[in-house]
């Protein structure tokens, strides 16, 4: 589950490393290229950290939902707060999977709840 919950952080981190390695391989002595890459790499690393540090929150949300599922008090729409952020949609999918919601239903519900978040943001 760690890989699943941290995949966005890993992809962002890989992007930052890719930029640095690309510059080092292509033009290591071009000082202005390094300077130009500083801000994007810094922002990628900063965002990577922001995404990665949410892992404990993702685990807590999953554990709470699992307890509700086991107690018979889980409602599929209760994953709505997790559908506004792509990094947390992974959590919503996992929770719905644990609740044995069929895959097509799961996809439809998450798409619907994500759409509702986007519409709410616009207003």
For the structure shown, list the relevant keywords.
123 residues, elongated
Structure description:
The structure is a single chain. This protein folds into two domains: 2-52; 56-122. Helix 1 packs antiparallel against helix 2. The mean pLDDT is 92. It is elongated. The protein has five helices and no strands. By secondary structure, it is an all-alpha fold.
Q: Helical element count?
A: 5
Shape: elongated
Helix content: over 70%
| Order of secondary-structure elements | HHHHH
Regions with little confidence, pLDDT below 50 for 5+ residues: none
How many individual domains?
Answer: 2
The portion of residues forming beta strands comes to under 5%
Number of strands: 0
Average pLDDT works out at 92
**How can the largest sheet be summarized?**
none
How would you briefly describe this protein structure?
The protein has 123 residues and is mainly alpha-helical.
Layout of helices and strands:
Blueprint: H1 2-26, H2 31-52, H3 55-71, H4 86-98, H5 103-122
Helix pairs in contact: 1-2, 1-4, 3-4, 4-5
